[in-house]
Amino acid sequence: MAVIIGPEKTSLFRAAPRLLQILRVLARHKFLSALRGKGHWPPPNEVRETFEELGLTFLKFGQVLAMRRDLLPDTYIHELEQLHDQLPAQGIDAVRAMVETELGAPLTKLFTSFSETPLAAATIAQVHEATMRDGRRVAVKVQRPGLEEMISTDIAALTYLAALGESLFPRLRAFDLPVLVREFSNSLNRETDFSHEARSIILFRAALKDVPGLWIPNVVAESSSGNVLTMDFSAGERIDIYAKQHPEEMPRLINTLVRLTLQTIFEEGLFHADPHPGNVLVLPDGRLSLLDFGMTGELDEPMRESLTLMLEAVVKGDARAATEAYLEMTMANENVNRASLLMDIKAVLYDIHRSDLAEVSIGDSFDSLLRAGSRNGVHNPGEFFLLTRTFVILESMIRQLDPDHDYLKSFREEISRLTTQHFSLERIKDKTGKLVRELERLLGDAPGDTRRILRRIAEGNLGRVQAPSVEALGGRLSRILERLIGAIVNAALVIGGSMLVLAPLGGWHHILGESMVFVGIFGTLLICIAALRHDRGRGSGRR
């Protein structure tokens, strides 16, 4: 079974010893005196050493803070980015016990061979090479024992510490620590649940099956559980090592990396949030192999639509449109200073557009937008920081692999391909079909729903309203609603057709766009004529 982490599982009494230990470490490194305003914050290297001293959970928490460029100065961010999650390997006896307990059979019956030396050992798990009974070569990811109690206690201690810190030191409220700890707990839950990682692998394999030159190891479901994950073995070489031996292959491999990143973000709404060289291998046949799906992000369709609008506005330098699209993706409230946010985003876009286009960083641009939002009261969803992290790591890796590669050219080409695909006939038919089904359901339900609501009003405090009058009003509202929906559909046809006409796609896209505009305008005229006839009929009846 998987680790389930939650502070509610650990009482304050049980967490107290760990809480006191954390406070002693923080006091020794002068954090508490800084919070009281009696000293300066510890230097960045001491902050990193503090997280390392506090152990596994705090190592992961420090890595999460390293993504919060909107909260911490760059010097601290750079130091926290050096936190490594490599730990001494567990002995083979502990690994064997975990595998046999999770999979319900002796190790020798599950595998014909199982390497005692791990391929890698990190904070959460370590990976061993093995051979299945049917001869398949696999990689077995085994979680470290005892994580549940340790992490639950640490999360409970962090939760109490965040609440206590905000009550004693008001200056900490700007960090929104309880929300930060809650999001960290949810993230750690996903990372320690290998069944979640297995589902992510399946989704990525389905989403990227048509990307040429890419292979993602499949999950061996019958030999996997919440704490053990068995996958096909990837016999590849780290891409940074491969780049030194085959520099001529880098343009092709980088284009594949850019394509798989943008396609999963904008088409599927999920993305690999840790694309560093150790998770990207090159197979002997030249294909890329993507590993480790423990840290992934998800974006729903409305958020992807707003993200697209924001990127378009950033490219055009339209600060107002970028601000509106940004606020649509966030949990904005009445505390957001919209005027100040607009001015800050204008400054961000000015810096982007006055720079040499070849030197523009997508990750840094996202980072600047998030900082502007946090300064003005916006609560940025956790997915934003993962998305920023993805682009920052990807851009850094590309510069390392091929410093002369035009990364933005690859980005523009892939966006152009996705735009063409977005306006394909099949996609338009699919979206139109969904719209028609939704409108048909709405039209079918609206008259009855309207009459039921009005009948309840008539039977309540407005009981003096006669039922026939209510029914007549319901009929009129239904007709108005039908006209309104018709107008919305026609407007959608006009807008969609105009987008196709204006898009630089040509061919049948242009013809389809003109047809949609014509149908939309013609439908609007029919609605107006029907409304005029109905109004004239009512006037004649009254006379």
What does this protein look like?
The chain is α+β, with helices and mostly antiparallel strands and 543 residues long. The chain has four domains: 7-85 and 151-189, no CATH class; 91-144 and 193-233, Phosphorylase Kinase, domain 1, CATH 3.30.200.20; 237-422, no CATH class; 425-542, no CATH class. It is 63% helix and 8% strand. The chain has 21 helices and eleven strands. The chain has helices at residues 12-28, 31-35, 44-54, 56-65, 74-80, 92-103, 107-110, 147-168, 177-192, 194-207, 239-245, 250-268, 301-316, 319-329, 338-354, 362-375, 382-401, 407-422, 425-459, 467-502, 508-542; strands at residues 111-114, 120-121, 125-132, 137-143, 214-215, 228-232, 237-238, 270-272, 280-282, 288-290, 296-298. The strands form three sheets. Strands 1, 2, 3, 4 and 6 form a five-stranded antiparallel sheet that branches. A four-stranded mixed sheet has the order 5-10-9-7. Strands 8-11 form a two-stranded antiparallel ribbon. A hairpin with a 5-residue loop joins β9 and β10. α13 (301-316) runs antiparallel to α14 and α15 packs antiparallel against α16 (362-375). The chain is globular. The model is unreliable at 1-8 and 461-473 (pLDDT under 50).
